[in-house]
Amino acid sequence: MSVIVITGGSRGIGAAAAIACAQRGMGVIFTYNSNRAAADAMVERIAAAGGKAVVLALDVADVSRFAAFRATVQQALRDTWDTDALHGLVNNAGYGLFNPLADVTEEQFDSLFNVHLKGPFFLTQALLPLLAPGAAIVNLTSATTRVATAGVAPYAAFKGGLEVLTRYMAKEFGERRIRANAVSPGAIRTELGGGLNDEFEALLAAQTALGRVGEPEEVGNIIAMLLSDESGWINAQSIEVGGGYQI
After folding, report:
1. Which of 32, 95, 155, 168 is catalytic?
2. Whole-prediction pTM
3. Which of 19, 20, 82, 15 shows the shortest CA–CA distance to 224?
4. Which of 82, 173, 182, 209 could, after both became Cys, cross-link 166 (CB 3.0–4.6 A)?
5. How does pLDDT run across 60-90, given as a tens digit for each residue?
6. Is 245 a catalytic residue?
7. Model confidence at 200, in pLDDT bands (50, 70, 90)?
């Protein structure tokens, strides 16, 4: 059985990806940062979908804990699936912050950097020894790397860095047949950045060719597809999932 790790899998796009992967027969290890109740509820949802999941605590901004996290993942693989190999990694965990460039503090800048670029870089490095030949990595970026959106400059800059890093992962891990792709959500109905009110949703819908905002499941399905064998010849790509956002 293929087993994958998803960071930030207790809500939003991460949760949708976890369900989609379980429905495709993958085992799921997902992380949460602070809301254990939501994480436990996700384990039950995955079980109801016919899958099996293990939930682990992880702060992706704290690189010092990644070696211990790798050991915990390895133990979960052995105990739950009787394997030592991972077949996928989804670097999804993140948060949004709306603040103009002129007002961004160094603390805010560093926090966003740690979560959205430094964390995925070193977590991938930490888990690389567990990734089997033919495994897949999916990094969650953002349409804000393509469409400049006032107020999210640091977030978008680090997502842009992650998009570039994705291509380097594909290049350097290719000899092990490990693929790396980025998924770039457009306007999606999640809690990121405080969620959507009716006015903001209407604005985003008007800027999208298909006339609405997307749902987390529509992104989660693409993530699951990129982790599966059917996308085995897709590599080093950034795939925008946004219904035609600002084209």
Report:
1. 155
2. 0.97
3. 20
4. 182
5. 999 999 999 999 999 999 999 999 999 999 9
6. no
7. confident
